[in-house]
Amino acid sequence: MFDQAPTGIAGIGTDLIRIARIEQALARHGQRFVQRILGEQEQVIYARRSQRDPQRGVRYVAMRFAAKEAFSKAIGLGMRMPMAWSRMQTLNAPSGRPMVVLSGDLKTWYEARYGEALISLTDETDMAMAFVIVQARSAT
């Protein structure tokens, strides 16, 4: 399951959001909201899902929003630089497992401080939730 033995936990974050809140933001701000919140790869996936079923698109944005909030809590920054919505993406490994993918200044900042970030996502009819564990950086 792990490439190497897991290290200690450096941070934990969780977020729970009402999907209707994201639906309202999308209705009010449309594509500007999507571009502000989602990274480039997430935007492509969102477009595909929305095209097939608009509600699937809303749920996708809600889960990614929760993931970004949970991650920002786990690393202790909140939404302060270098943390930015679009610099943290939750994508899927070929196995389907969700994984954290960072970019820009956030990636550099994170890699100097932490090890792997583990993420779990779930949703129900009206809620989306994310849970993140950030491992301590291994001493190599």
TrEMBL record:
Chief place where the protein resides: cytoplasm
Q: Does the keyword Zinc apply?
A: no
Compartment list? Cytoplasm
Stored InterPro entries? 4-PPantetheinyl_Trfase_dom, 4-PPantetheinyl_Trfase_dom_sf, ACPS, Ppantetheine-prot_Trfase_dom
One Pfam family of this chain: ACPS
Domain (4'-phosphopantetheinyl transferase): give its ranges. 11-110
| Residues at which Mg(2+) binds | 15, 69
What GO molecular function terms would the record report?
holo-[acyl-carrier-protein] synthase activity
What's the catalysed reaction? apo-[ACP] + CoA = holo-[ACP] + adenosine 3',5'-bisphosphate + H(+)
What keywords are annotated for this sequence in UniProt? Cytoplasm, Fatty acid biosynthesis, Fatty acid metabolism, Lipid biosynthesis, Lipid metabolism, Magnesium, Metal-binding, Transferase
Q: What is its EC number?
A: 2.7.8.7
Give yes or no: UniProt keyword Mitochondrion: no
Q: Which cofactor does it need?
A: Mg(2+)
Q: Which NCBIfam families match?
A: acpS, pantethn_trn
UniProt similarity note: Belongs to the P-Pant transferase superfamily. AcpS family.
The protein's role, per its UniProt record: Transfers the 4'-phosphopantetheine moiety from coenzyme A to a Ser of acyl-carrier-protein.
UniProt protein name: Holo-[acyl-carrier-protein] synthase
Task: State the taxonomy lineage.
Answer: Bacteria, Pseudomonadati, Pseudomonadota, Betaproteobacteria, Burkholderiales
